Amino acid sequence: MADNKNTAIAQVDLTQVKPYGDALNDGKVEMAFTLPVPYGEEAEECAKQYVKKLGFQEPNVTYYHELTPGFTFFVVYGSAQQTIDYTAINVPKVEGTVMDRVECGEWIGEHIGRDIVVVGASIESDAHTVGIDAIIQMKGFHGHFGLERFKHVVPYNMGSQVPCEELIAKAKEVNADAILVSQTVTQKDIHIIQLTKMEELLEAEGLRDKIILTCGGPRISHELAQELGYDAGFGPGKYAEHVMSFIMQEVEKRGWQNKPNIADR
Amino acid sequence: MGLLYDLSNKYKTLSIVGMAKNAGKTTALNFLIEEAMDEGIVLGITSTGRDGETQDLVTGTEKPRVYLDQGTLVSVPSQLFGLADAGLEILRRTKYSTAIGELLICKVQDAGYVQIAGPVINSETKKLCQDMFGLGCDLVMIDGAIDRKTIASPETSDAIILATGAVLSRSMKKVVEETAHVVHLYGLPEFDENDKVTEFIRQDNYEHIIAFNDKGEGKVLDLVTGLGAARYIDDAIEEDTRYIFIPGAFTNSVVADITNKHLKQVEFILKDPTKIFVNIMDWSQLRKRGFKVKVLKNIEIAAITVNPWSPQGYTFDSDVLIEEMRKLIPDMPIIDVRK
Predict the structure, then answer these.
(1) Which structural domain range is residue B169 located in?
(2) Same domain? B110 vs B209
């Protein structure tokens, strides 16, 4: 087995990567989509032609059914032709080391010497608490406990549909070191509008360099977060320990160990 | 003489502020860079986001590239340094944070395309501008990101170029109205600088919400922020209260619950127009209720650039758009930078 694996990797040209189906470089992709056309053989042909237009070769409709009169759902296979140069990829990541929950607690006790206060919410129109709960709530997510279980961390979870104003007012009231903004809904780029509003309000309140501002959500990357003016962004696969590791090291970097009050920073 | 020549005589730092994403900030920047080349002005260029990359991070639309002439100063993060097509000489390494590594101040030695990025935080942008002047440039231009308007604050730059365009709305009327709203806000009347009230605010270091009576005596209100505090501000307004100073953001939640009588009685004083986050509709409603406001410092708009093209696939007639703009916004250079 081990030998097989080695040969496979040896054959891969990382400057021209393509999807893998049954064999290397066959480019096989599975697509699922709905077209607003009535169910029938014409619908199947329509899906085929559409996938071809997308640039896939050998389109193959493996499954389709009627969703409701006038709408048909398809699963189509096709061979992709495009390639990507994997070696030229450059993804900005949050800097610093990542520690686990227990290490974080100890590190804060040792290096900061006081509790770190964070305030989190899902802001504006977003009614989803899943993101902010995954990070803050005790039970956490995927076996990664949330900030409520961390030593030397005082988290406030304000829930969902919190106006930016309220989140900022709370952060000011409890002298937060960091604000966590969660955005789950991304239709029509609503998250961009809301995240920008949050950043601008904080800047206008004169708090931007006195509070660490982070955001997270399924469609958020560190790069996007920085473009929007945030200190860090956390996407899928990031847990409470990633967020806390960043915040505590940032608190140390900024020399806020003896500055629990916002006014002193 | 061109537009930029006039501007560089009047201002040291110019921010390019967009009314929306894809309003044509980078196109405006390129237009001004070209002018600078013709005029022989040494430019310093930085950005609050990232510029000159070929694809937009959020929408994936094509973005214009930025071509810089020899002698221009530019801030480039270390990870983008290798991607520059121009020959760059590193003048200084800075401590400002970016998403993509250490920020370098470079001098263009060999003209070409460059990807630009700058500090994330406005106060660091300000320091960077000072660094660039120290290294010998005549005029610094800051390219804004998305529609972050706080960069327009007079604390950061002397004047702004306002980039607006079809992307705002499918209705030309709305594009013009919203642009005029921002221009109106940025040109709000300034409060008398030598007044007792201003002095009091300065002494307080622009930190607290203060109520002033008709004799100009100030009383600091016990509020951490004005946000959501309309009721408390309303309570604090007494018979003889004349002015209320709000140091931070000014949203509907700061004034919504103030009674009409009190709204008519007092005048609000804000630090600068970037603190205002009230949309055009609520603004006119407030006005109707008798709301009055002044700022300590307003924002100079050096020029307005319009982009009649929207990435959503519709365009306006450039001449009509500019004409409509001029009707609502007289006495201001309005240019179509794509022409």
Answers:
(1) 3-187+299-336
(2) no
Closest to B80 measured CA to CA, from B116, B44, B105: B116
Residues B242, B312, single domain; the answer is no
Catalytic residues of A: 139
For residue B19, give Cα distances in angstroms to A66, A108, B145, B178: 44, 42, 10, 9
Return the residue in A84, A162, A200, A265 with the most chain B beta carbons within 10 A, the one to mutate for interface testing. A200
Q: Do B146 and B277 belong together in one domain?
A: no
B284 & B317 share domain: no
- pLDDT tens digit string along B110-122? 999 888 888 877 7
Sign of the dihedral defined by the CA atoms of residues B52, B56, B57, B58, in that order: positive
pLDDT, tens only, A201-215: 998 888 988 999 999
Could you report the per-residue pLDDT of B9-64, keeping only the tens digit for each? 888 899 998 888 778 888 888 888 888 888 888 999 998 876 656 666 666 666 77
Domain count, chain B: 2
- pLDDT mean values, one per 10 residues, chain B (339 residues): 73 88 83 86 85 63 81 89 87 80 90 86 87 91 78 84 90 93 92 86 88 89 84 90 91 88 92 89 92 92 90 88 92 83
**Residue B53 Cα, gap to closest chain A Cα (Å):** 13
| B274 chain-A contacts, CB cut-off 8 A | 200, 204
Q: Are strands B116-117 and B276-277 parallel, antiparallel or unpaired?
A: unpaired
Are B108 and B12 part of one and the same domain? yes
What fold characterizes domain A2-79? Defensin A-like (3.30.30)
Domain ranges of chain A: 2-79, 101-264
Q: Which of A166, A174, A201 is the best substitution to test chain B (most B C-beta atoms within 10 A)?
A: A201
Average pLDDT of every residue of chain B: 86
Domain covering A101-264: architecture? 3-Layer(aba) Sandwich (3.40)
pTM: 0.76
**Is the minimum CB–CB distance between B50 and chain A shorter than 8 Å?**
yes
pLDDT at A7: 55
- Contact list in B for residue A229 (CB cut-off 8 A) is 48, 120-121, 145, 148
How large a percentage of chain A has pLDDT more than 90?
73
Q: B67-68 and B112-113: which strand pairing?
A: antiparallel
Same domain, B68 and B173: yes
At residue B54, the pLDDT reads: 62
Q: Please check whether residue B247 touches A, CB under 8 A.
A: yes
- Cβ of B148 within 8 Å of Cβ of A206? The answer is no
- Say which of B124, B147, B249 has its CB closest to residue A201: B249
In this prediction, residue B57 carries a pLDDT of 62
| A173 vs B100, B101, B224: nearest CB | B224
With a cut of 70, list the residues of chain A below it in pLDDT: 1-10
